[in-house]
Design a protein that fits this description.
The protein is α+β, with helices and mostly antiparallel strands. The chain contains four helices and three strands, in the order H-E-H-H-E-E-H. It has helices at residues 2-16, 24-34, 43-55, 79-103, and strands at residues 22-23, 59-64, 72-77. Strands 1-3-2 form a three-stranded antiparallel beta sheet. Strand 2 and strand 3 form a beta hairpin.
């Protein structure tokens, strides 16, 4: 279970920031909600992953300050990140289809 999550973490985070910039807590919450609680990130591992993705140039972080709120760092997808996301989606599609065929898993 842990290894599966580790192998899909980049894909999940990149997909979460594809449409719009999000802060770390929002990314974690969205993944938990969309997976019906099956996938959860602890804060330390998520921020470590965000730092790595940013250092690779796949996401861009920006500090946002709003009145009466603490400042937050939001992350958005870069052009390089979009290309990586497309590659990872295709790789995941092929992998999941193969596993489903072999394991006799049907969707629906």
């Amino acid at each position: 279970d842990r290894e599966l999550k580790k192998g899909t973490a980049e894909l999940l985070v990149l997909a979460c920031v594809e449409a719009r910039a999000r802060h770390g807590y929002e990314i974690a919450r969205r993944i938990a909600e969309e997976s019906n609680g099956a996938i959860r990130f602890n804060v330390a591992s998520l921020y470590g992953l965000l730092y790595r993705l940013e250092s690779r140039g796949w996401i861009r972080g920006r500090w946002i300050e709003a009145p009466h709120e603490r400042r937050r760092r939001t992350y958005s997808l870069t052009a390089a990140g979009r290309a990586v996301l497309a590659e990872q989606r295709e790789g995941w599609r092929v992998f999941a289809a193969a596993v489903s065929r072999i394991a006799g898993v049907t969707h629906g």
